[in-house]
Design brief:
By secondary structure, the chain is mainly alpha-helical. 70% of the residues lie in helices and 1% in strands. The protein contains 21 helices and two strands. Strands 1-2 form a two-stranded antiparallel ribbon. Strand 1 and strand 2 form a beta hairpin. The longest helix has 24 residues.
Length: 402
């Protein structure tokens, strides 16, 4: 019977692109020791041996023994800054960040900073986003506090956008409660903005995403569909922003329906979204929505993967239209990760490796933090009968196998 030590030693060794002989030489232990541990003939090893093997593989002894998770996240200080920035409130004594009102940024400077922060979000540059977003949130709140009338409504729109970015990055970090708080605050600011209808619909989309991550799929689908009905473009309406927000809400509704076990309803929702995308005639990426014919087609492929039909996913991927406008790298990277999952299920392992490599190249900071990518790479390492070369080892490290 295989032990965690046996599985982890073999996995880490292959992920480091080492043979048993090379690991034994680097760790200064007998090659027979390495071989017997990996074959499960030795369920335990002396602490000194574990320490040597861990140093050679550059992993913690606890990770080698399967006693601790391997965490590949952000520094606690960065996450704490994000949490403080989202939850700051003048209603709670001690949490007010409005004291420094002498240096209130003007609306145009804030708008420029907001767009740059959004660009970091869609590019998957998480480290840059975590640095910039707390500053943007504080500055936007100060601008709201210092303005009235039309200027205040414009500032509320920027604040809503900043909170939505907070909800997005918190969701990516699996901080579901923080994501919910940010999305609710985005909704509150949107109601006071100069474009409440669009702002409310966009903010609801982030609430829906949070509901899905909390496992509240029935609630998520109902909320998304109702919001989409309120903003649905008319048949001849070619407003790209309205169509994009409408389509994104339906993407989320379809995702929720699929997770609730209704593939047919998810298919119908995606069909409506895809029809709206085709009417727009082009792909676009704005703070409001990421939408268009290619974006919708990527969602259809992901739907097939989630339904457990990898053959259909790879077949549909061959028919995806070329982009007719900007499609963010993290969307393209996510598509490749889903295709890698499909390829791995069909035992097309080299294709899966190539797709994971493409995803990493497109959005390195984003891709390496995706649970599905990590799971696929983990499976590929476990299935590898022997070392697979330097590129394979680098991908294994990038996706957190080590």
């Amino acid at each position: 019977m295989s032990s965690p030590l046996a599985e982890n030693l073999a996995r880490f060794r292959k992920a480091r692109d080492l043979s048993q002989e090379e690991l034994a030489a680097t760790a200064d232990v007998g090659v027979d020791t390495v071989s017997r541990i990996e074959r499960g003939q030795r369920q335990t090893a002396r602490p000194a041996t574990i320490a040597k093997l861990s140093r050679a593989l550059t992993v913690a002894p606890g990770a080698l023994l399967g006693l601790m998770p391997r965490i590949h996240g952000f520094p606690d200080a960065e996450v704490a800054r994000l949490r403080h920035a989202i939850t700051a409130s003048s209603e709670v004594p001690g949490l007010d960040d409005l004291a420094d009102t002498d240096g209130v940024s003007d609306w145009f400077s804030l708008a420029k900073a907001g767009h740059a922060t959004w660009q970091a979000y869609v590019d998957g540059r998480h480290s840059q986003l975590l640095h910039a977003l707390p500053i943007l949130l504080a500055d936007a709140r100060r601008c709201v506090h210092a303005t009235t009338g039309d200027a205040n409504a414009a500032a509320q729109r920027l604040l809503s956008t900043a909170y939505r970015l907070g909800a997005g990055i918190a969701g990516r970090l699996n901080l579901a409660d923080l994501a919910w708080t940010a999305a609710e605050r985005a909704l509150t600011a949107a109601r006071k903005s100069d474009d409440p209808e669009i702002g409310i619909a966009i903010s609801v989309r982030y609430l829906v995403w949070t509901l899905i991550n909390q496992g509240r799929t029935a609630d998520a689908e109902r909320v998304a569909v109702k919001a989409a009905e309120r903003i649905e473009p008319r048949m001849l309406d070619r407003d790209a922003i309205r169509a994009g927000v409408f389509g994104n809400l339906l993407f989320n509704a379809a995702n929720a329906a699929l997770r609730s076990g209704s593939g047919e309803r998810a298919h119908d929702l995606l069909a409506v979204a895809r029809s709206a995308a085709l009417r727009t005639g082009k792909d676009s990426a704005t703070e409001a929505a990421i939408f268009g014919p290619r974006v919708a087609a990527l969602q259809v492929v992901e739907h097939a993967v989630r339904l457990g039909d990898p053959e259909a996913a790879l077949r549909l991927a061959e028919k995806i239209p070329q982009p007719q406008g900007p499609v963010p790298p993290f969307w393209e990277a996510g598509h490749r990760i889903h295709l890698a999952h499909a390829a791995a299920q069909l035992r097309r392992d080299q294709l899966a490796v190539d797709l994971l490599g493409e995803a990493r190249d497109l959005a390195p900071d984003w891709a390496r933090r995706q649970p599905l990518g990590a799971a696929v790479m983990h499976d590929l390492v476990d299935k590898a009968p022997r070392r697979r070369g330097r590129r394979f080892a680098v991908l294994a490290a990038d996706y957190g196998v080590l």
